[in-house]
Amino acid sequence: MSEINRKSPESLQDRLEQVQELLERHRLVENLVHKQDGQHQELVEHLVHQQNLVELQRKLDELHPADVAYVLESLPLEERLAVWQLVKTERDGEILLEVSDAVRETLIADMDSHELIAAANSLDADELADLAPDLPRDIVRELMDSLDAQQRDRLKSALSYDEDQVGALMDFDMLTIRDDVSLEVVSRYLRRFDALPDHTDKLFVVDTEGLLKGVLSIKKLLVSSPDALVADVMADDPVVFDPADDAGEAAQAFERYDLVSAPVVDNLGRLCGRLTIDEMVDYIREESEAEVLNAAGLREEEDIFASVWKSVRNRWAWLAVNLCTALVASRVIGLFETAIEQLVALAALMPIVAGIGGNSGNQTITMIVRGIATGQVQVAHGKRLLRKEVGVALINGLFWGCVLAGIAYLLYGSVALAIVLLAAMTLNMLLAACMGVFIPLIRLRLGGDPALGSSVLITAITDSGGFFIFLGLATLFLL
Amino acid sequence: MSEINRKSPESLQDRLEQVQELLERHRLVENLVHKQDGQHQELVEHLVHQQNLVELQRKLDELHPADVAYVLESLPLEERLAVWQLVKTERDGEILLEVSDAVRETLIADMDSHELIAAANSLDADELADLAPDLPRDIVRELMDSLDAQQRDRLKSALSYDEDQVGALMDFDMLTIRDDVSLEVVSRYLRRFDALPDHTDKLFVVDTEGLLKGVLSIKKLLVSSPDALVADVMADDPVVFDPADDAGEAAQAFERYDLVSAPVVDNLGRLCGRLTIDEMVDYIREESEAEVLNAAGLREEEDIFASVWKSVRNRWAWLAVNLCTALVASRVIGLFETAIEQLVALAALMPIVAGIGGNSGNQTITMIVRGIATGQVQVAHGKRLLRKEVGVALINGLFWGCVLAGIAYLLYGSVALAIVLLAAMTLNMLLAACMGVFIPLIRLRLGGDPALGSSVLITAITDSGGFFIFLGLATLFLL
């Protein structure tokens, strides 16, 4: 009996380091060969070089596809492509499925059409559908032609759904049984397979028309008497999904009901696919990453070793939006230039009013957007939420406003200035609270996505609003 | 054969509405009873009232615990507690496990010690460990005493780990077998159970000492010959975890290797628990929510219907930090008050320099922090990443700087001012890029968490830095 091989995350890090070390050695040898051009030397180095490559290749062959993907994502472009060349062609497909979109692009760009078709041929229809959007169009057409009728139909169906729909995430690795056989027969049927599809925790019970009648969980199969009929032990009220369902809601259902797999049925009740927890976990992770990236002003996931130009393209859109909102805020200040000329302390204090308002507004809007996303906040809650947020803003505004007014008094010695600052901070935080509740609820009622750019919008309002309120109050009462 | 009961997310929303409608009716009747105080009337209304409550209770009994949790989270405090009273006591425990931390607090606060102990008694040791931190201390002590020795040991062990460690997330529902028996024997053994633990996709093979020797996947059990020995068909290199492992890394391993369950072994190789995908999914979701909330300046998950005071407490810490950084920026401006007095356009333009720098710096630091979290960025990559980010910042700074300089020239008609603005924007974006790379890498080397408050830190630097660079350059070249 061999020892347990510990595939824990630490050792993954170790393996990445091993690959990097081998690459390093490979490069050192290459440099040596370039420098010392003697015939004999070169031959020796060539052998050493080959040996390193062979060792690296052996290492890669041993790794799980997800680990190869991780290694590829962790390497700068040049080394990434060197390693990619060493990966066996028959593994290309599964590894392309595992890498991030940004890295996949760099790998596909490095492959010729022959290699791409060879890689794609090792995949199932649902996996092909995941890859297809990144492939050149003529390759996709060629692949379509090479598939049999069933696979082609499945690929077409998967491609017909939006990437946020269940239909795009489902697979077709389903085991179906009839309900009028005994569990003994089911067990014999299963033993005819060499292996069962991944994440098979239930068998789907269908009638001769393909209509789903229930599911038989494997656990139930194992504990029940072999003589029992499928119809008697199956569950006839499973959680099912429609291919047009929203993938995010499906993921929430997987979380809520602790599912491992679930049938997908069309509107006639016919079984047409299967969702599994691994796809849902990937979906949850991607969604949450998109949220974080978006909040930071990045359009999409970026290959960390991407070229400067690629990164510029990924980032310019949000910078442009930011520039516009900053310009508006700047023009608001421009309105009050005479006031600032007369009392220059205003210039130093105004960013505080805007900044605290922005922070407070972001707190509110994040809460509301989150509540909408989980379905816990509806338009009808508006009044109640507004009351609460206004209350919070009032307390925070008055408290921090007093702290700040105290500091401003110490710095500038003017009671009137301190009072204006306190009033402006409180008013701007009230504005932030109202907008933080209104904006997402209005977008919800209009049918938009309340999350998109919400932080930019609220910051724009609290910046311009904060400058306007503070400088306006100062003009009215101080000058 | 009954129809398939479609438990899709839409119908969950429906059920929430049904509960709300019943609550509404219940309240209407109560109002009626209060208004019309005739003896006879009251009796009739009382009956109607009772009927509504009974219907509501029936509805709740039918719901999955996770759905009851969802309903509770979606109701304002008063109605939430009304519904909570209607939930059967024996279900309290499982529902408390499902609700969010913030909502759980409100429910526990509404229960007396008798109810709490009844609820806790229905839970396993690992579930109790999840609940224990929210329970009053004397209740936990009382519970400890009521457990048998094995359960108490398990509870103590689970409580001894940090909530970010595998030991705190593992459960003890493991099926173990020996390796010298046939699959036939294993099947017979399994049939002795009424039900198998959730997420049982593999059986753990241990020797007489409790040392893990391998795992037998259920799928393998189903397709293999009943005469085969466990030792011959089991996998002897499963992915295993240590109770002290980081939960986030375990979650990544679950994603990477598409696991459903995995054994947890101590440093002697003894099986001590089990991790399952549902716990990992919850962990992933909680981590990503914490990231989003943190980025918005919220300390922790907030019950959307929390009281004003609770919300103020949740939010004040980040506001305080923000106030400090804003004060520093304000003092930087204060240094240049004479410059602003002489050229008031500076006051209007300076927020643009600071704002764009902040956006750009956040883009950089988010990329780097994310790369560190996934292990793809190491300290050794610093130079390469710095080169790339500086390149991106230079291009963006010069491009947007030129756009802005053009606008400033149109507004103020001064070439010198436009050039100073261009220079300040570019320099501040370079500062943002350098700090966006340095800060997380330095914190990584020092062993801290690079994510914590990274956005606040970089924004503080680009604000104060932007004001200083712009006003400083203006003082040097324009006055």
Automatic annotation (TrEMBL), chains A, B:
Gene3D superfamilies named among the record's database cross-references: CBS-domain, MgtE N-terminal domain-like, SLC41 divalent cation transporters, integral membrane domain
PROSITE patterns per the UniProt record, alphabetical: CBS
Subcellular location per the Swiss-Prot or TrEMBL entry: Cell membrane; Membrane
GO molecular function: magnesium ion transmembrane transporter activity; metal ion binding
Pfam families (UniProt xref): CBS (PF00571), MgtE (PF01769), MgtE_N (PF03448)
Annotated keywords: CBS domain, Cell membrane, Magnesium, Membrane, Metal-binding, Transmembrane, Transmembrane helix, Transport
TM regions (residue ranges): 390-412, 418-444, 456-478
InterPro entries: CBS_dom, CBS_dom_sf, Mg_transptr_MgtE_intracell_dom, MgtE_N_sf, MgtE_transporter, SLC41_membr_dom, SLC41_membr_dom_sf
Entry membrane topology: Multi-pass membrane protein
CDD domains on file: CBS_pair_Mg_transporter
Domain of life of the source: Bacteria
Signal sequence extent: none
A GO CC term attached to the entry: plasma membrane
CBS domain mapped to chain residues: 234-291
Function: Acts as a magnesium transporter.
Subunit text: Homodimer.
Similarity section: Belongs to the SLC41A transporter family.
Protein name (database record): Magnesium transporter MgtE
